[in-house]
Amino acid sequence: MKKIITRLIATAVAAVSVVSLAACSSTSATDSDHKITIGIKFDQPGVGFKKGGTYTGFDVSVARYIAHELGYKDYEIVWREAPSKQREAMLQNRDVDMILASYSITDDRKKTVDFAGPYLVAGQDLLVRSDNTTINGPEDLDGKRLCSVTGSTSAVVIKERYSNKVQLMEQPSYAECATALFSGIVDAVTTDNIILAGLASNSRGRLKLVGKPFTQEYYGVGLHKGDYELAKKINAAINKMVSTGDWEQAIEDNTSGTGFTPDTQYNPPFANQGESAQSVEFARSTEESSDSKN
Amino acid sequence: MTQNFNEFLQLFQQYDILGAFWVNIELTFWAAVIAVVLGVILIMMRISPISSLRGFAAGYCEFFKNMPLTIIMVFMVLGIFGQLKISFSDTFTINFFWLAVTGLGVYTAAFVCESLRSGINTIPVGQAEASRALGLSFMQSATQIILPQAIRGAVAPLGNTLIALLKNSTVAAAASVATETSSLMSTMIEFHSEHIIGIFLIFAIGYVILIIPIGLLTTFLSNRLAVRR
Amino acid sequence: MKNKDMSTQLLFDEPGPKGKRIIRVMNVIAAILIAAVAIVVLVRLYNPPQGENQLSWQLWKPALDLEAWTDFYLPGLGLTLGAALAGIVGSLIFGLVFGILRLLPNPYIRFIAAIIVEFCRAVPVLIMMVFFWRWFAGMGIQHSSYYAVVLALILYNGSVIAELVRSGVGNLPKGQREASLALGLTRTESLMQVEVPQAIFAMMPATVTQLVVALKDTALGSIILYTDLLQESRRLGSMYFNILQTLAVSAVIYFVICWIASRIAEAMPAWMANRTSGPVEEEVVPPIAVMDATNRNQIKAAKTPRPFGGAEPVYPDHFHGSHAHHENWTHHHYIEQQELEHPHDYPQEIRNEIMKTMHLRVKPRGNNPQSGSGDKKSEKGSGEPQK
């Protein structure tokens, strides 16, 4: 009987180690050889989305372009999921070399990480049903129902600045929000316009963007603190991407059919951030830097 | 150190921790009411002579016993509310609260039904045989002989189901109930990550304090009410 | 299923011709009612007041085609099963270790193990997951959500299994322990070589049930962004706006796997009955709070056939729950009137002997036999339990 217990425990220990090894094995091959690890979103169609082994979206296109410019081939890029709440931690722990995950440049974040870029100036916007005519901006939301992602600050912006009588529904991801919008239990979904455009492009023409962004989000490339050399190279790559027209092509590819155009007042941006310890004004910017947000 | 501790104490003023627990208690209470009513109906169906009702009740229990609560909660919002347009109130917070209560209730009803069935198993066959021999009808023997004894035998599993329900009420977070404990804990950790262990202990000990009396009471009642044979 | 449930068969007589007709009519009415509800729901899905026809093939096809399986469901299912497997294996180890620690003669070890186990049983799994997730992420551990899911599953299910081990030992007939002590084994040897192995067989069905619980709880991982089956089907759904369809598919997958495990758990008591002397009934919800209320022994008593001729039936031991430790256990027997003498009433020299061999802490006590307490059936009981 004692033997049985010993054997049971031994098998169990073996099984646990096998399972945990299996979970770890995918992580180790990052730093040693010529590879670059990039953190992106895996669950935002049009921005960063994982489908089987392929990755699509605007962030992914930009990341791929930058990696090519830095001298990495497609197969040398290791994609890693960078959920919103974990981005700073992932950079600080050096799990990733850079992050392009709808990551807006804010002073708060600059305390722990550095940013290159910006590669896009997004803005908070509203997604509504195509037959909607009543909602034309955040001021029209009084008494309406709004969906946002749990823990996101987008909804707070609307509540505090525009209409405090809005009813808020919180869902784990924007896909649920969009489904709720489809079925009519909410009247609008809010977050950055590029994310909304990604959602709208999959909606078979049933959803549309209001198209009046009311904040500016400077999407940057998250880097380790003090990595100025890399930032210079990345900025050069982004500016090259804009000048060759690949940037516009990437926007077009990922948001086709949604009527999304980046806010022309700020776009395409000039990448000049993160090249030294001093903070630099955003180029093409006429307003002060935007609020901290998703 | 003391400053750190003072900061920690301020968390109690800044966040409504007791309120969050109260939301969970309310969720549990109303879900328990639904679950008990549904559970008794289901067990009556399950032991009835009508085979379609028996089949329905058995299918119901199997379905909810083998379905993750998280999925049920998501379906309550996107399916029941989103597609079938069944809503309890025009105010979102109230609506989601009751959707979560309903989800918890119908889920727990399956376990209440199973608990009562396990209570029926504590009754020797002779009881049913004797009640039939006395000429009692199905309803008579069920309501006067079987169920009263079954409930006494089912106190222990029912108590455990209640505790499980209280703990499951945290899953209401998946149904957009943003004021309950696990959501509040997430928020607190988000903004005060330096006190993460302390914050966890607040909530963990809160649940220990809630659950231990239920456990003690259950054991006491189970021993007290058990039919001595 | 019907055959196993004796009560369902015995509550009503074999119906006569009139009864059969009533049942037939009721069957039809009930079937029509159930079908009517189903039709109303389907019509509502087919033609909702707003939004899309949820039954259209356009929405179901992307949720069911090959790509959906290879790119989303199967990787997600792999991660779900991986976490569930690691969780259940880990919790078996945790459960065995802590279950045995709670039975050891040393009171300090028992106390510390008890605190840990009771704590883990009382804290909701989701609260643990969220905490570990943020904590691990803060410490810079990669795949923090995976480890958070697994660790939360281990701590909760492990503590439940620890209690199953302990109550399994407490539920064994006392003859098992007495016999091994009589054979000269020490208290710990008897525990490890005779009682725990039998308790393991007794707890097998409940453990498989616990596996189902662990599998269902992995779905909570989606709340902390673990890319399990639920999360992957959400992602698939965000591609074509058919999240209801993809969630329905994943619900079916969860159901099928859990259902198979449940069937195994249901069949197990019959397999295990020969290998242990304790009760093996599967429990609906395992005891999850202090004192471990359960009705296993009541079920076993109900299933024990009564002897003919009015003889007193031989019932199994009552449940001991938290009294599984030997000292409490004999005391509990005494309270339950299964034992007519309290160990404290044994003569001094026997108590000394017990102390020596069993590491028991029996306080010396004056020998003042009094009549039994009021509710006692037997007059042979002498002396009250310790005050």
TrEMBL record, chain A:
GO terms for biological process: amino acid transport. Residues 284-294 have a biased composition (Basic and acidic residues). GO terms for cellular component: extracellular region; membrane; outer membrane-bounded periplasmic space. Residues 1-22 form the signal peptide. CDD domains: PBP2_GluB. The keyword Transport applies. Pfam families: SBP_bac_3 (PF00497). Residues 35-259 form the Solute-binding protein family 3/N-terminal domain. Residues 252-294 are annotated as: Disordered. Keywords: Signal, Transport. One of its GO terms (molecular function) is ligand-gated monoatomic ion channel activity. Residues 41-249 form the Ionotropic glutamate receptor C-terminal domain. Residues 252-267 have a biased composition (Polar residues). Belongs to the bacterial solute-binding protein 3 family. This is Glutamate ABC transporter substrate-binding protein. It comes from Alloscardovia theropitheci.
UniProtKB/TrEMBL annotation, chain B:
Residues 21-218 form the ABC transmembrane type-1 domain. The chain crosses the membrane at residues 20-45, 66-84, 96-113, 196-221. The keyword Protein biosynthesis does not apply. NCBIfam families: HEQRo_perm_3TM (TIGR01726). Keywords: Amino-acid transport, Cell membrane, Membrane, Transmembrane, Transmembrane helix, Transport. It holds the Pfam family BPD_transp_1. This is ABC transporter permease subunit. One of its GO terms (biological process) is amino acid transport. Belongs to the binding-protein-dependent transport system permease family. HisMQ subfamily. One of its GO terms (cellular component) is ATP-binding cassette (ABC) transporter complex. It is a multi-pass membrane protein. It comes from the Bacteria.
TrEMBL record, chain C:
InterPro entries: AA_ABC_transptr_permease_3TM (IPR010065), ArtM/GltK/GlnP/TcyL/YhdX-like (IPR043429), MetI-like (IPR000515), MetI-like_sf (IPR035906). The chain crosses the membrane at residues 21-46, 72-101, 108-133, 145-165, 239-262. Pfam families: BPD_transp_1. Residues 374-387 have a biased composition (Basic and acidic residues). One of its GO terms (biological process) is amino acid transport. It is found in: Cell membrane. One of its GO terms (cellular component) is ATP-binding cassette (ABC) transporter complex. Keywords: Cell membrane, Membrane, Transmembrane, Transmembrane helix, Transport. It comes from the Bacteria. One of its GO terms (molecular function) is transmembrane transporter activity. It is a multi-pass membrane protein. Residues 361-387 are annotated as: Disordered. Residues 77-265 form the ABC transmembrane type-1 domain. PANTHER family: AMINO ACID ABC TRANSPORTER PERMEASE, MEMBRANE COMPONENT OF AMINO ACID ABC TRANSPORTER. Belongs to the binding-protein-dependent transport system permease family. This is Amino acid ABC transporter permease. The lineage of its organism: Bacteria, Bacillati, Actinomycetota, Actinomycetes, Bifidobacteriales.
